[in-house]
Amino acid sequence: MQRLGAARWVAIAGIAVLVAAVAVLVYAALQHANPESTGGEAQPVPTFTLGAEAPTPTPTPTEAPVSLEQTRFLAIGSEVWWRATAGSCTGPAPVVERSYDQGESWTDVTPAYLGITQVQTLEAFSARDAELVAAMAGCEPQALRTYTRGEFWDSYPDVLAASRYIDPRDAGSVHLPSGPVPAPCPAAFGLHAFGDIVTLVCDGRAWSRSGDEWVALSPERVLAVAIDDGDVLVAHRADDCSGVAVSRVAAATPDSASTIGCAESTDPASPAAIAAIGDDVIVWSGESLSSIATTGR
Questions:
Q1: pTM for the complete prediction?
Q2: Who's near 129: CB < 8 A, 6+ residues apart?
Q3: Over 60: is that where the pLDDT of 40 sits?
Q4: Of 141, 188, 194, 297, which has the most beta carbons under 10 Å away?
Q5: Looking at residues 196-222, what average pLDDT do you find?
């Protein structure tokens, strides 16, 4: 009996040792799988990069387009200068001004009493007098002329029928005496016409009407156009000009742009208008007028 009891105790002790050994192994395994943080705080999750890290792209700066209601017009007679902001049939009213002192001072001569809502074209047809194609009540176009230096304006239906202008109700349509034609884009502005030349601005480009189609002129980033001696004058932004640059393009050769100069004191981010007088081009941008001597004739 004593021998049997001793064997039982030996067996029990062996089982206890075995259980303790298993417990030690389990604890070691758990420690290996979940090591303690040396700092006592949670450590960040490691990250990995496969291959070369792609550089963060730099956004390309965009140039704000000229809104139709901010479009400007400049027309120069030998005695009276004229300028206007377009306005909108459903927004701000247009402003028409006259200057007797070559742009040093201006007088508001807007024919508001006629219900004018938007200017489409502005031309000086004599030394002292001017004409507009303008939208009136209901955005209906009319041709207005003044023979009193802007004091009074009257409607001339025959002048309207012969005029070329962008439809104030649809900036994607151009009225010609022969009938309406589509503009090169849905939001054309700044149309000028003289003789056989019709030019306007669409999608940042100057366009000229040639036969039955529109032809894009160089350069790009265009702000305004005008006509001088059968050529198209183009006001545009340029990398080498801190203000508004002006180029001359022969309507018959649309890629023949020659640089006239740079109006350094002007703001290329503002709406602009240009007009030729003698050997100079006048640039109206921001609050100022600047003059550039013409070249490349």
A1: 0.77
A2: 77, 80, 145, 146, 147, 149
A3: no
A4: 188
A5: 94
